[in-house]
């Protein structure tokens, strides 16, 4: 348990309890992903953090939606960037809920923590503007597969928590494999976490020793998407700091049982 509590950064997000339980897109039974109802249900079921994705509407408003298009959830081939935020909000994705704006999510859930994947090329500027206007910097972690987006986010909001982009994590992984501790520390200087699958680049990323070395470099290690109880427990034993899951109820039960055994 000691490894799980060794790191404590400043800010509400980074100061929250660990291991962190992140609800993947607010996926909950009876709710559509990335809706305010799903977010509320996930928090009520024991999620510590809502994980979601930022796209940008035609009128430049950051909205919470995973895909580039509406086709998977609505059947429409329209791209998010070609539809206004108002039109997106008026859609019925389920239970009468449409696509929420980032502002609506942060405002309607003022105490919730958010892990936000900054997806589209224009999303860093508009997303950071909204976050700053709501004084929400301390309760979000901004992620992106894009190194350009990650750098832009950190330039615009220097104090916000952030995770590694895909290319940055590969560089960290290579440096670690060659035992280059100083290089690993240099590469992790502007991030607070790596958020990764259990396997990458043909390697198992869940070894306790690897996680411990990242902890030594000052970053948390979060895994996605973890739904099976046995795998949840295995990653907790390896001292993972966060788990992104589609099954908040099961994950909360397993984490609480694991903590009670410590």
UniProtKB/TrEMBL annotation:
GO terms for biological process: lipid metabolic process. One of its GO terms (molecular function) is phosphoric diester hydrolase activity. InterPro entries: GP_PDE_dom, PLC-like_Pdiesterase_TIM-brl. Residues 19-255 form the GP-PDE domain. This is Unannotated protein. It comes from freshwater metagenome.
